[in-house]
Amino acid sequence: MAEPAEKIQDVGLDDGAARLTPERIERVINGVLAAAGGARLRSYVETCVHCGLCAEACHWYQSFDKDPTFSPAGKVKQTMWVILNRKGKVSPEFIRRASEIASTECNLCRRCVHFCPMGIDIAYMMVLIRRICHRLGVTFCHHEPDVGEGR
Amino acid sequence: MKRLRTGLFLGVTAVAWVVVSSSIPAYSQEDITSLKDEAFGKGQRPPAVFVHEAHNEKAEIEDCNVCHHVYRNGKNVEDESSEDSRCSDCHNMKKGYPTRPLMKAYHDLCKGCHKAKKAGPITCGECHPRKGASGAHEAEGEH
Amino acid sequence: MHTIYNFVRGPLAWLAFAVFVIGSLYKVISTLRVAREKDIWVYEYTSLYYAIRSIVHWIVPFANINSRQRPIFTIVTFVFHICLLAVPIFLLAHVVLWDESFSISWWTLPEGTADVLSLVVVACCGYFLWRRLTQAEVKFVTTASDYAILAVVVAPFVTGFLAYHQWLGYKFWLVLHILAGELWLVCIPFTRLRHMLFFPLNRAYIGSEFGAVRHVRDY
Question: How confident is the model at residue B27 (pLDDT cuts 50, 70, 90)?
């Protein structure tokens, strides 16, 4: 297994996460899930048998020397599973990490879909995570210090 | 050495007994210890354990036609019995209207009564014990 | 004995099948209804041709890239799923029970074959357990519930095997076998075992999205 990836220093992530409160996180997550989290999200999460067959498909997983935290299902585990299990009650640090995963460790290429026997669209779930994080104003932004809360 | 010889003697006797006893047709009801019906051919499971005399004594069955029934026009004829014919004479192996197929006839008759009386075996292995299985003893002990 | 057996074979079996059938219908119908409300393009995109194309490529072994890249896993999982369904459906003792209750019967497996196939199921579960314990990418996404599900799946086969051989405690294993089978049925709609129901639905949608919208293959 490779060394854990170096923690990204990013003003968008760091400042965004610093502004968060648990109440706001819960409200935004549940708002996004109520509006956009429909049958597909439910079916994708509940049908995944945790077989790990998607890992080989992911170029992030391959590039990081088969580190399982970069496998497609591994990324869902660190983001959507937790959010659904805790019904949106997650910490600012969690959101920061979720944003990092969904925006900087997944290109939404959907190669994993070609590998999933259950036809689960993991990129779709990463898009939902991106959307939540964007709404919360925790968005990876390279070097633009002035990007604010989002909308 | 002596033990070996005794064992050999017992073994040969047992084999001889099985050979002799199976070559004589068991028509007497005292001799019936299993429901072996040739119509089944080589069944998947051994024939059901059924010691005719002990069973009827324990179950307090006096009338033959409790099991050896005669059906006419779909009705059980009360004072007639059929112990002079084989079950498979009426109950063939296939799904035959108006009678039940042979296996189902046995299962329904045996288990039906056992369930109604809340006594006797009702699970597969109690009647069809595998060779050397503990189920055989359980079945005999529970009539 | 009569009381316990009659209870697990009678009312409890009815309950298990009812929960399985009604629960499955509920899960599928409610998901399709939510899709109608919230994921409208599911119905827009889904095309029969691409749905069937996708499902066929995933229920035929070696018809997709993934299964060709992992021949051992592919063989194990196909053998496992075929035995998992074939053994309980075509087991002589089970068909006898169907015949007894509803006067319906069908072809049965030879007893010896069914016996071996049950062991094959157990062995395949052993392989899955080994993957969960040793393969990093599987281990990372494994939760306690995955082990529980594996146990629920293997239990009817282990207890059925022990009951069939009548070595010791026949009736105990038999009752446990029936209970394990009923637990299995009840778990299908309410655990990830429901992939049995949702596999065709997911595939139908994703196959259509990939085929009809993106114009690519999903296998």
Answer: low
Distance CA C179, CA C156 (A): 8
Q: Do C137 and A50 touch (CB under 8 A)?
A: no
Nearest to B125 among C6, C111, C170 (CB): C170
Domains of chain A, start order:
43-139 (1.10.1060.10)
Specify the amino acid at residue C13. A
Pick one of 1.10.150, 1.20.950, 1.10.10, 3.10.20 as the CATH number of C2-213.
1.20.950
Nearest by CB to A69, from C73, C140, C195: name it. Answer: C140
CB pairs under 8 A between B and C: 56
Write down the pTM of the prediction.
0.86
C198/A36 touch (CB, cutoff 8 Å), yes or no:
no
Of A129-133, B7-11, B18-22, which gets the smallest average pLDDT? Answer: B18-22
Q: What is the pLDDT of residues C59-77, one digit of tens each?
A: 999 999 999 999 999 999 9
A10 conformational bin, left if phi > 0, alpha if psi -120 to 50, beta if neither:
beta
Confidence of residue B135 (pLDDT cuts 50, 70, 90): very low
CATH (one of 3.30.360.10, 3.90.10.10, 3.30.870.10, 1.10.357.10) for B26-127: 3.90.10.10
Q: Where are the domains of chain B?
A: 26-127
Residue for token digits 């064992």? Answer: B7
Taking the C-alpha atoms of residue C56 and residue C77, their distance in angstroms, rounded to an integer, is: 16
Give contacts of C57 with chain A, Cβ < 8 Å: none
Residue written as token pair 């017992």: B10
> What parts of chain A have a pLDDT lower than 50?
1-2, 150-151
Q: What is the ipTM of this complex?
A: 0.90
Chains B and A touch (3+ CB pairs under 8 A): no
State in Å, rounded, how far the first CA of chain A is from the last one: 39
